[in-house]
Design brief:
about 250 residues, mainly beta, 2 domains, seven-stranded mixed β-sheet
Length: about 250
Protein backbone atom coordinates (compact mmCIF):
# COMPACT_ATOMS: atom_id res chain seq x y z
CA UNK A 1 0.00 0.00 0.00
CA UNK A 2 2.83 2.39 0.92
CA UNK A 3 4.66 1.50 -2.30
CA UNK A 4 1.52 2.15 -4.32
CA UNK A 5 1.04 5.54 -2.62
CA UNK A 6 4.65 6.53 -3.32
CA UNK A 7 4.22 5.58 -6.96
CA UNK A 8 1.08 7.72 -7.21
CA UNK A 9 2.84 10.72 -5.63
CA UNK A 10 5.80 10.32 -8.00
CA UNK A 11 3.45 10.14 -10.99
CA UNK A 12 1.65 13.35 -10.00
CA UNK A 13 4.91 15.25 -9.45
CA UNK A 14 6.32 14.09 -12.79
CA UNK A 15 3.13 15.05 -14.66
CA UNK A 16 3.13 18.52 -13.09
CA UNK A 17 6.74 19.07 -14.11
CA UNK A 18 5.89 18.32 -17.75
CA UNK A 19 2.78 20.51 -17.95
CA UNK A 20 4.63 23.36 -16.26
CA UNK A 21 7.56 23.35 -18.68
CA UNK A 22 8.33 26.84 -19.99
CA UNK A 23 10.60 27.44 -22.95
CA UNK A 24 13.46 29.50 -21.59
CA UNK A 25 14.59 32.62 -23.45
CA UNK A 26 16.55 31.53 -26.49
CA UNK A 27 14.89 28.11 -26.80
CA UNK A 28 12.97 29.29 -29.86
CA UNK A 29 14.74 31.93 -31.93
CA UNK A 30 13.33 33.93 -34.83
CA UNK A 31 15.77 35.69 -37.14
CA UNK A 32 14.87 38.16 -39.88
CA UNK A 33 16.72 39.17 -43.03
CA UNK A 34 15.85 41.64 -45.79
CA UNK A 35 16.31 40.50 -49.38
CA UNK A 36 15.80 42.24 -52.71
CA UNK A 37 16.97 45.66 -53.85
CA UNK A 38 19.46 46.25 -51.03
CA UNK A 39 23.07 47.27 -50.47
CA UNK A 40 25.51 47.15 -47.57
CA UNK A 41 27.57 50.29 -47.11
CA UNK A 42 29.74 50.99 -44.10
CA UNK A 43 28.18 48.11 -42.19
CA UNK A 44 24.67 49.49 -42.71
CA UNK A 45 21.85 48.00 -44.76
CA UNK A 46 20.33 50.35 -47.33
CA UNK A 47 17.30 49.77 -49.52
CA UNK A 48 16.18 51.68 -52.57
CA UNK A 49 13.31 54.14 -52.01
CA UNK A 50 11.53 52.66 -55.03
CA UNK A 51 12.85 49.09 -55.12
CA UNK A 52 11.00 46.00 -53.93
CA UNK A 53 12.22 44.06 -50.90
CA UNK A 54 11.01 41.06 -48.92
CA UNK A 55 11.55 39.62 -45.47
CA UNK A 56 13.13 36.18 -45.09
CA UNK A 57 12.62 34.51 -41.72
CA UNK A 58 14.09 31.54 -39.88
CA UNK A 59 12.60 29.89 -36.79
CA UNK A 60 15.06 27.72 -34.87
CA UNK A 61 13.83 25.29 -32.24
CA UNK A 62 16.64 24.93 -29.72
CA UNK A 63 14.44 23.29 -27.09
CA UNK A 64 14.29 19.61 -26.17
CA UNK A 65 10.74 19.15 -27.44
CA UNK A 66 8.94 19.74 -30.70
CA UNK A 67 6.87 22.86 -31.23
CA UNK A 68 3.88 23.75 -33.38
CA UNK A 69 3.49 27.18 -34.97
CA UNK A 70 0.14 28.65 -33.92
CA UNK A 71 0.35 31.95 -35.81
CA UNK A 72 2.83 34.24 -37.55
CA UNK A 73 2.42 37.97 -38.15
CA UNK A 74 4.76 40.09 -40.23
CA UNK A 75 5.06 43.86 -39.74
CA UNK A 76 6.52 45.71 -42.72
CA UNK A 77 6.14 49.23 -44.14
CA UNK A 78 2.51 49.27 -45.16
CA UNK A 79 1.01 47.28 -42.29
CA UNK A 80 0.76 44.00 -40.39
CA UNK A 81 0.06 40.80 -42.31
CA UNK A 82 -0.59 37.21 -41.28
CA UNK A 83 1.60 34.48 -42.72
CA UNK A 84 -0.14 31.14 -43.16
CA UNK A 85 2.20 28.44 -41.90
CA UNK A 86 -0.57 25.86 -41.62
CA UNK A 87 0.26 24.78 -38.06
CA UNK A 88 3.71 23.57 -39.11
CA UNK A 89 5.69 21.58 -36.56
CA UNK A 90 9.40 21.96 -35.84
CA UNK A 91 11.24 19.16 -34.12
CA UNK A 92 13.98 19.60 -31.49
CA UNK A 93 17.10 21.08 -33.09
CA UNK A 94 15.28 21.72 -36.36
CA UNK A 95 14.37 24.95 -38.12
CA UNK A 96 11.76 26.39 -40.47
CA UNK A 97 12.39 29.08 -43.08
CA UNK A 98 9.76 31.13 -44.90
CA UNK A 99 9.31 34.45 -46.67
CA UNK A 100 7.01 37.40 -46.14
CA UNK A 101 5.35 39.72 -48.62
CA UNK A 102 6.99 42.27 -50.91
CA UNK A 103 7.31 45.79 -49.55
CA UNK A 104 8.78 49.16 -50.44
CA UNK A 105 10.14 51.86 -48.17
CA UNK A 106 7.73 54.45 -46.82
CA UNK A 107 8.03 57.83 -48.53
CA UNK A 108 9.74 60.46 -46.42
CA UNK A 109 11.23 58.00 -43.93
CA UNK A 110 14.97 57.35 -43.86
CA UNK A 111 14.78 54.40 -41.43
CA UNK A 112 12.53 51.42 -40.89
CA UNK A 113 12.36 47.81 -39.81
CA UNK A 114 10.55 44.56 -40.43
CA UNK A 115 9.33 42.28 -37.66
CA UNK A 116 8.00 38.73 -37.52
CA UNK A 117 6.14 37.60 -34.39
CA UNK A 118 5.26 33.95 -34.02
CA UNK A 119 3.15 32.22 -31.42
CA UNK A 120 4.00 28.59 -30.82
CA UNK A 121 3.05 25.74 -28.51
CA UNK A 122 5.15 22.87 -27.22
CA UNK A 123 4.18 19.50 -28.67
CA UNK A 124 4.07 18.11 -25.13
CA UNK A 125 2.85 20.94 -22.91
CA UNK A 126 0.70 22.90 -25.46
CA UNK A 127 1.57 26.13 -23.64
CA UNK A 128 1.56 29.05 -26.10
CA UNK A 129 4.45 31.49 -26.15
CA UNK A 130 5.79 34.18 -28.44
CA UNK A 131 9.11 34.82 -30.16
CA UNK A 132 10.07 37.79 -32.33
CA UNK A 133 12.68 38.52 -34.98
CA UNK A 134 13.50 41.94 -36.41
CA UNK A 135 15.73 43.53 -39.05
CA UNK A 136 16.36 47.25 -39.51
CA UNK A 137 17.22 49.19 -42.64
CA UNK A 138 18.02 52.64 -43.95
CA UNK A 139 16.32 54.03 -47.03
CA UNK A 140 18.73 55.59 -49.49
CA UNK A 141 18.31 59.34 -49.68
CA UNK A 142 20.21 60.73 -52.67
CA UNK A 143 18.89 64.30 -52.59
CA UNK A 144 20.98 67.28 -53.71
CA UNK A 145 20.68 71.05 -53.76
CA UNK A 146 22.05 72.82 -56.84
CA UNK A 147 22.82 76.49 -57.53
CA UNK A 148 23.96 77.82 -60.91
CA UNK A 149 25.65 81.17 -61.47
CA UNK A 150 27.41 83.05 -64.25
CA UNK A 151 29.86 85.90 -64.69
CA UNK A 152 27.32 87.46 -67.05
CA UNK A 153 24.26 89.14 -65.58
CA UNK A 154 22.38 89.80 -68.81
CA UNK A 155 22.25 88.92 -72.51
CA UNK A 156 25.57 88.04 -74.12
CA UNK A 157 26.77 88.13 -77.69
CA UNK A 158 26.78 84.80 -79.47
CA UNK A 159 30.15 83.11 -78.94
CA UNK A 160 31.09 85.33 -76.01
CA UNK A 161 33.24 83.63 -73.37
CA UNK A 162 31.21 83.16 -70.20
CA UNK A 163 32.25 81.77 -66.82
CA UNK A 164 29.75 79.25 -65.40
CA UNK A 165 29.69 77.78 -61.90
CA UNK A 166 27.51 75.00 -60.48
CA UNK A 167 27.53 74.28 -56.74
CA UNK A 168 26.19 70.95 -55.56
CA UNK A 169 25.41 70.26 -51.91
CA UNK A 170 24.55 66.75 -50.82
CA UNK A 171 21.41 66.11 -48.80
CA UNK A 172 22.03 62.37 -49.10
CA UNK A 173 22.74 59.82 -46.38
CA UNK A 174 25.28 57.99 -48.57
CA UNK A 175 28.33 59.15 -50.49
CA UNK A 176 27.46 59.92 -54.10
CA UNK A 177 30.15 59.01 -56.62
CA UNK A 178 31.21 60.00 -60.13
CA UNK A 179 28.86 62.93 -60.61
CA UNK A 180 28.73 64.46 -64.07
CA UNK A 181 27.22 67.98 -64.22
CA UNK A 182 25.63 69.07 -67.50
CA UNK A 183 23.74 72.10 -68.79
CA UNK A 184 21.03 70.46 -70.88
CA UNK A 185 20.20 73.72 -72.70
CA UNK A 186 23.79 74.16 -73.87
CA UNK A 187 24.36 70.44 -74.34
CA UNK A 188 27.67 70.76 -72.50
CA UNK A 189 29.26 68.93 -69.58
CA UNK A 190 30.42 71.61 -67.16
CA UNK A 191 32.50 69.38 -64.91
CA UNK A 192 32.67 66.25 -62.77
CA UNK A 193 32.81 65.48 -59.06
CA UNK A 194 34.51 62.26 -57.98
CA UNK A 195 32.69 61.89 -54.66
CA UNK A 196 30.24 63.91 -52.60
CA UNK A 197 29.86 62.90 -48.95
CA UNK A 198 26.65 63.53 -46.95
CA UNK A 199 26.33 67.26 -46.27
CA UNK A 200 29.34 68.13 -48.41
CA UNK A 201 29.31 70.98 -50.94
CA UNK A 202 31.47 71.06 -54.07
CA UNK A 203 31.54 73.20 -57.20
CA UNK A 204 32.42 72.79 -60.85
CA UNK A 205 33.51 75.80 -62.89
CA UNK A 206 34.23 76.32 -66.55
CA UNK A 207 34.41 79.07 -69.15
CA UNK A 208 32.75 78.40 -72.48
CA UNK A 209 31.67 80.38 -75.54
CA UNK A 210 27.89 80.65 -75.46
CA UNK A 211 26.48 79.71 -78.85
CA UNK A 212 22.90 79.56 -77.57
CA UNK A 213 20.95 80.65 -74.54
CA UNK A 214 20.61 78.71 -71.33
CA UNK A 215 17.58 78.52 -69.08
CA UNK A 216 19.58 77.04 -66.22
CA UNK A 217 18.49 73.43 -66.59
CA UNK A 218 21.09 71.20 -64.97
CA UNK A 219 21.35 67.41 -65.27
CA UNK A 220 23.48 65.44 -62.81
CA UNK A 221 24.30 61.81 -63.51
CA UNK A 222 25.91 59.66 -60.80
CA UNK A 223 26.57 56.05 -59.87
CA UNK A 224 23.67 54.08 -58.44
CA UNK A 225 24.36 54.04 -54.65
CA UNK A 226 23.04 50.45 -54.52
CA UNK A 227 26.00 49.34 -56.61
CA UNK A 228 24.02 48.06 -59.59
CA UNK A 229 26.68 49.39 -61.95
CA UNK A 230 24.17 51.70 -63.60
CA UNK A 231 23.73 55.45 -63.57
CA UNK A 232 21.01 57.57 -62.00
CA UNK A 233 19.97 61.02 -63.17
CA UNK A 234 18.46 64.08 -61.54
CA UNK A 235 17.33 67.31 -63.20
CA UNK A 236 17.27 70.76 -61.63
CA UNK A 237 15.65 74.02 -62.77
CA UNK A 238 18.04 76.52 -61.21
CA UNK A 239 16.38 79.66 -62.55
CA UNK A 240 19.51 80.99 -64.27
CA UNK A 241 18.76 82.57 -67.66
CA UNK A 242 21.34 83.87 -70.11
CA UNK A 243 19.80 84.98 -73.42
CA UNK A 244 21.83 85.44 -76.59
CA UNK A 245 21.82 88.68 -78.55
CA UNK A 246 23.14 89.28 -82.04
CA UNK A 247 26.78 88.67 -82.75
CA UNK A 248 29.16 91.40 -81.69
CA UNK A 249 30.23 93.66 -84.55
CA UNK A 250 33.68 92.99 -85.97
Amino acid sequence: MISLLLCMIFFVVSFSAVTGTVHADGDVVVSAEITGNISNAGGKLFISPSGTCRGAYLVQNKSAQGIRIVSAVESVPGGDFSIDLGGKEIGPGESLSFSGRNFTAEAGKDTGNITCRIRYAGAEDQQEQEATGQASFLTINDSMNVTYSSSQQGPVFKGEQTALKVEVQSGANVTLKNLSVMDSDLGKTLGTINALAPGERKAVETTVPLDKETNGNIIIEYDDPLGSGGKLRKTFDTGLKIPIKQEAPV
